[in-house]
Amino acid sequence: MATPEILGARNVAPDTVSLSSFMPVGDLGMLAVNAFVIHAAEPILVDTGAAALRAPFLAALEEAIDPADLRYIWLSHMDADHLGNLEAVLALAPKAKVITNFLGMAKMMLQERDVSRAQLIAPGQELDLGDRKLVPLKPPYYDAPETTGFFDTKTRVLFSADAFGALLPGAETDAAAIDRDTLREGMLKWAAIDAPWLSTADPQAFGGLLRNIERLDPSAIISGHLPVARGVTGQLARNLNEALSAGIFDVPDHDTFERLIEAAPLAA
Known about the structure:
Helices cover 29% and strands 24% of the residues. By secondary structure, it is an alpha/beta fold. The strands form two sheets. Strands 1, 2, 3, 4, 5, 6, 7 and 12 form an eight-stranded mixed sheet that branches. It has a six-stranded mixed sheet with strand order 8-9-10-11-13-14, with no helix packed on it. The chain is globular and about 45 Å long. The protein starts with a strand and ends in a 5-residue tail after the last helix.
């Protein structure tokens, strides 16, 4: 089994820094686990990474920005790889408010997390960061109903949460540089794992969602689980559209899981 790879803080678009790592998913490949800092007039952190990589995540965050300068923390959804370091970040960012929606806050409360600094985004509401607005939107697919992406009105960067993620052979920094077949296969695998319901989705309706993204013409797509994607929006949409007919993906069974655990490097 591969070990996590830490890429740290990297500029991926105007005003946008990725806090990137790659985690092994059994023997299926490596999955990017990304958070982002947007250097707006009122800076914002987008997601907080996985708790298993807390030390390198916080080091990357402090490389990207003084956490005390953060004004907001955007939580796309409440999966462990997106809010794993929330409390640690809040301790370093005393002025930051946590942006979520009603269901997201309810899930936080069920996990006995502190919601005293939560600020809810209502449907149709935008987040004003002083020099731009983040326009909330639903990605074309997601694995949690509270999931919320956004479009940055200044840089035209689209944050897609889990959507457009891909299982890849190794750590990558640029989706456009990945072999087309490798990227396609990796996206189909991830979509089948993260959103198996896509095989039952209405093709016309789903195609409409993808065309909306193409019409938006983002300068870059930043995903929680894909290297930054510039100039390949159409390719990503075509790959994802194939997920409707890709069928059920065979994930590892229990015997395979035990074999992978035995082969995994011992923890330090």
